Amino acid sequence: MTYLQNHTILSSGDLDEVRESIKNLAARHDLDVKGRQADFHARVAAVERDDINLMHVTFGNARLSVESSEEDDDGLLLYLVTSGTGVAQHCGEDLEFSANAGFMRDLAVPVSATEDDFGAVVLRLSKNKLKNHARSLVGDDVDLKGLRFNPVIDPATPGWNVFRHTVDYVAHNLDGPLRDVQNPFITTQMKDMLFTQCLSLLPNSYQDVMNGRAVTEIVPYYVKRARDHIHAHAHKKLGLADIAAAAGCGYRGLQKGFMDAYGKPPIAYLRTVRLKRVRTILKTELNGKTVAEVARQWGFSHMGRFAKDYQREFGELPSETIRKYV
């Protein structure tokens, strides 16, 4: 199957041209050919519709070395390998991948790889947008931690073939029947299907929640004390020293405990609790108060920063919440 054949943007054996093309579409990758330069010939195809960003890349019969530094705290690149093999060092692990497998690159972490005869469909994703999609499905009351995916997805992983077929379906339609159709409702429907299956079928830290299974992680006692203190005193002025004193441990231990348990440091956890309290009020009981008054009540003094944090957490502005629920 030739992916996105009507969206080919580059077919070239010029390594510098290929580097520049991929950098502009996904992330900077320092590519080098190991062996005969004549064996290298790249084809790059890409299509973008709203939050769907798909590419297909092939590099001929060449062996490549790939180096890429950290690029973007929010970005993920999911490679659905269509040909060849590779080995990579990523997220502190030595990884191997082959045709029909998946490789999830976290753009916040550098990667070093060697690839042979490599080709892949590449789906660019946003951690924040995936998190907001998960929240829209499971509700605001579920405590969603930092989103982490397994770097390598084995072809035998349950659900992987279903997800691959969905990507094939989306790529086929964007390249064919829907190539000239600009319909945001259809695009949103395809995006929702991709996001839901990505979170539900691929191994990640949200998968149990997305599939209705209880998450049974053991949280250290001192983290529980700190967490309970935050929930009980979120309306008061709280700093890291206050939280650490309530937990009965040092700053570093508390920071690590929260990162392990909730994927964020205690002050960020406190901010999330406060944002949820504000959202509850905006949805149910404004009682004549303004958004600014409610925000200040819960410790947010800078309205511009508050609005950005709120939108990042819930995928909408405070004013949109009010219009939707009040």
Provide a descriptive summary of the structure in words.
This protein has twelve helices and ten strands. The protein has 326 residues and is α+β, with helices and mostly antiparallel strands. The chain is globular. Strands 1, 2, 3, 4, 5, 6, 7, 8, 9 and 10 form a ten-stranded antiparallel sheet that branches. It has two domains: 5-210, Sandwich (Jelly Rolls), CATH 2.60.120; 221-325, Homeodomain-like (Arc Repressor Mutant, subunit A, Orthogonal Bundle). InterPro entries: AraC-bd_2, AraC_XylS_family_regulators, Homeodomain-like_sf, HTH_AraC, HTH_AraC-typ_CS. This is AraC family transcriptional regulator. GO terms for molecular function: DNA-binding transcription factor activity; sequence-specific DNA binding. Keywords: DNA-binding, Transcription, Transcription regulation.
